[in-house]
Design brief:
- Helices cover 49% and strands 17% of the residues.
- The chain is an alpha+beta fold.
- The chain is elongated and about 105 Å long.
Length: 820
């Protein structure tokens, strides 16, 4: 212990004697460690931190994968939701799960304080809280009987209890109005509970009792596939065992209900934590690898600084060795100095990470689950301490080993700067610069690919014109508008009022709205094309008003728009199809006049053959990056979807119309709040938010890496000039021109840069393929990107080389020889 304290005190004195060196090294390390810590805090919160439930490893999601008709499961499946009847069968027949629960999100107009507003809620099966292992903090959870129609019990969130009920302890037994129905409060969840993970967080949970009401309840429809399912595995049951059992159950349902087209649906069981974060895992892993590369570059830079500083300490270390200091003691002393530097850099890095994390959380996509939990907590600090110590060893070991091997007699001899030892040290410097340059090229290549991908994404034609469009939904009470005719009259009235607003050129109602995250998929039949039972083709469907195409700017390429007699509750059954539909189902044919039978019905629109009257352009439905998929359009009035989206095209800034829209809706129904209010430009921006975040972050890392690599090259060439000052002065005294000296140093720098670029190109070829899932419109081995980033790196290297080269060419040969 005494030795360690002695080494530490001596190391501290050494660093104080060289404040310029110490500050440069600490700042370099702080940048690398700070960036690594900030990214790790997000990485840990999203991917590594256990779910906040008891025994989270036993929680599994159960879903279905939908495969194209006729694929036999050989194609890539698309995740799909589950229907109530399927869930009830799963729950009754499985033996792998202790409990199995369902849930689906919904919105309700609530007015506990007198002003109606829309709040997020969840309809859950009665044992939902038991599956998660989290009981209410106050009151009770649901019981089995409360799943049946007519039961109106509600559990509310802690935040909702605080904000709207002033944390009243007498809340239990009180009623709150949701969906214009009185619900009795039976429980309040803990402050830390929020599930499902979404933004904004749920304010209430109800049972499927509401879905079980009406003449055609959702709980009896296998085609109503809107549920997510989560289960708690029994002790000793593995994911693989549960998967095998659920696959058997799902296959049995497909045979039992052939008319429901379940043959193309396969059960999927996966850890809940993996399901929550499945889409963002590749991106976060790549960003963490990128920041690790940045940290390595920082380590290489500091190692170069230590080597350069070591040349000034050779005499000191040689004297110590000559006086009897053992090699082990010298190595230990030098490593102690390195660790002290790295720990100081780690402390500064934590302070920098706090600032960086705040900025990152503003940039990060709101769709990343649990990202709000990211913080510089105990686990992250332990990681930072480990990283700091590891970096201290990484950048300190090479200089320590190098300096501890000095020959005392040689080190004390005059003219050591031109010795073999000096040349070996230059080679070590050069190797570090090559490594920095190679890693810098890898980061630049990744950033270049993401930038090009993002530019391609911004240039995507969504199939409609999102400029100057405002969108929103209206919270309509099903109790106040009990019939289709009443709700249709309200929606038509809203559309008319919107159309009358000054500056509004067109208004429409639609469901689902493109790029809103909503969607409807149905099966259908083509007249004259029989198929096996349960093997119907699938298609997306949009329910639209005739004004949809004008308001959204969706071109009708062939045919005509819906007419007045077709856009009525019992109108003539017609449909429009998009180009992707024609390419897949009517290649080389004219689809106009052909007939299909959509598997979507209503009281006013029973199952019937619909005539195709038009072909429209393809519209991006869920993501800008998606391939065009078959889609059909049905007129709104016969289907009368509850709570459609409204869209209006305006002159000027759409956001400036929000108050006018709110007033227009309130004039028809003051208790019908508007919600999900967005300009369409904002919706498009949300669709590109994750790509923007990845691109900005990796570009920032690459820029810092480029700067550090340039500094490293500048340092090694400056060190070379110092080491070879006598030689350069002698050359110039013997007639060497300044241009020759300039060329000598520049060539040395560019050779190092070219070797680094070549090595980095090979590494990039291996690693950029992992970016494939994040790229759009560009290949991982894109030659134009490589040429561009290599050119940037070589240009910066040229600038970094020119400064010491110019200094060497400006040496006065006579003065140099005299000083030597």
């Amino acid at each position: 212990m005494q030795d360690i304290l002695g080494h530490s005190r001596f190391a501290l004195r050494q660093l104080r004697r060289n404040p310029g060196f110490s500050l440069t090294a600490i700042l370099t390390l702080a940048l690398g460690i700070g960036a690594t810590t900030a990214i790790f805090s997000i990485f840990y919160a999203v991917l590594l931190r256990p779910l906040p439930f008891p025994e989270p490893d036993r929680l599994a999601s159960v879903s279905v994968m939908s495969f194209p008709a006729g694929s036999g499961g050989d194609a890539i499946g698309v995740p799909a939701s589950v229907s109530y009847p399927d869930f009830f069968d799963w729950r009754a027949q499985n033996r792998s799960f202790e409990s199995l629960a369902s849930y689906h999100g919904l919105n309700a107009a609530a007015n506990p304080n007198g002003s109606a507003r829309m709040i997020n809620g969840v309809a859950v099966s009665w044992d939902f809280f038991h599956v998660l292992g989290v009981p209410p903090a106050m009151g009770r959870a649901f019981n089995r009987d409360e799943e049946t129609a007519g039961n109106h019990s509600v559990v509310i969130s802690h935040d909702f209890w605080l904000s709207d009920f002033n944390a009243s302890p007498s809340i239990f037994g009180q009623t709150i109005k949701l969906f214009d129905v009185n619900y009795t409060v039976i429980g309040v969840m803990p402050a830390s509970f929020s599930f499902p993970v979404e933004t904004p967080a749920p304010s209430f949970w109800i049972t499927p009792a509401r879905d079980a009401e009406g003449t055609s309840p959702s709980t009896s429809q296998r085609g109503w596939m809107q549920l997510e399912t989560i289960g708690r595995l029994k002790h000793g049951v593995t994911i693989a065992q549960a998967q095998a059992e659920m696959s058997t159950i799902q296959a049995g349902l497909a045979k039992r209900y052939p008319q429901e087209d379940l043959n193309n649906h396969a059960a999927r069981v996966a850890p809940e934590a993996e399901t929550l974060t499945g889409d963002v895992r590749p991106a976060l892993r790549i960003l963490f690898a990128a920041v690790a590369a940045l940290l390595l570059i920082a380590c290489a830079n500091v190692a170069g600084l230590l080597l350069a500083r070591g040349s000034a300490r050779q005499s000191e270390l040689a004297v110590r060795a000559a006086l009897g200091a053992r090699r082990r003691e010298i190595v230990l002393q030098l490593l102690t100095e390195s660790l002290l530097l790295s720990l100081t850099g780690g402390v500064a890095g934590v302070a920098l990470a706090v600032l960086m994390l705040k900025g990152l959380l503003h940039l990060v996509s709101p769709g990343i689950p649990r990202v709000g939990e990211a913080s510089i907590d105990g686990a992250v600090l332990v990681f930072t301490l480990g990283v700091s110590m590891l970096t201290g060893v990484l950048f300190g070991l090479l200089p320590a080993r190098r300096l501890s091997r000095l020959d005392p007699a040689l080190a004390l001899r005059d003219g050591n700067r031109t010795s073999t030892s000096g040349r070996k040290q230059l080679r070590l410097h050069a190797a570090l610069v090559i490594a920095e340059t190679a890693l810098g090229l890898v980061l630049l290549m990744g950033a270049g690919l993401l930038i090009r991908s993002f530019l391609h994404l911004l240039a995507v034609d969504p199939g409609f014109n999102p400029r100057h469009v405002l969108t929103f939904r209206v919270g309509v009470s099903p109790q106040r508008y009990k019939t289709d005719a009443e709700s249709l009259a309200l929606y038509r009235g809203i559309q008319t009022s919107l159309q009358a607003l000054p500056g509004v050129s067109s208004a429409t109602a639609v469901y689902p709205l493109p790029l809103s995250g909503s969607g409807i998929g149905i099966t259908f039949d083509i007249e004259g094309r029989p198929h096996a039972p349960g093997d119907s083709p699938e298609v997306r469907v949009s329910i639209v008003e005739p004004s949809f195409f004008q308001t959204m700017g969706v071109p009708i390429l062939r045919g005509r728009n819906f007419s007045q007699d077709e856009d009525q509750p019992k109108g003539r059954p017609v449909t429009m199809v998009n180009q992707a539909f024609v390419r897949k189902f009517f290649p080389g044919e004219d689809p106009i006049g052909k007939r299909i039978e959509p598997g979507l019905t209503s009281d006013d629109n029973p199952k019937a053959m619909h005539e195709i009257i038009a072909v429209t352009a393809d519209v991006k439905r869920e993501r800008l990056t998606e391939e065009a998929t078959p889609e059909i359009y049905l007129p709104y009035a016969p289907m009368n979807i509850t709570s459609p989206y409204f869209a209006l095209r305006v002159a000027g800034d759409p956001a400036s119309y929000i108050n006018s829209v709110r007033a227009a809706v309130a004039s028809l129904d003051k208790d019908a709040p508007i919600y999900r209010v967005h300009t369409y430009d904002d919706l498009v921006a949300l669709n590109t938010a994750q790509s923007r975040f990845q691109t900005l972050l990796l570009t920032a890392f690459a820029a810092v890496a480029l700067l550090l690599a340039a500094i490293g090259l500048y340092a090694v060439l400056s060190y070379m000039v110092v080491q070879r000052t006598h030689e350069i002065g002698l050359r110039m005294a013997l007639g060497a021109q300044r241009g020759n000296v300039l060329k000598l140093i520049l060539n040395r720098g560019m050779v190092l840069a070219l070797i680094g670029v070549a090595l980095g190109a090979g590494v990039s070829a291996l690693l950029t393929r992992f970016l494939g899932t994040l790229l759009y419109g560009v290949k991982p081995l894109d030659p134009l990107t490589f040429i561009a980033v290599a050119g940037v790196l070589l240009a910066v290297s040229g600038v970094a080389s020119a400064i010491p080269a110019s200094r060497a060419a400006s040496l006065d040969p006579m003065k140099t020889l005299r000083d030597q």
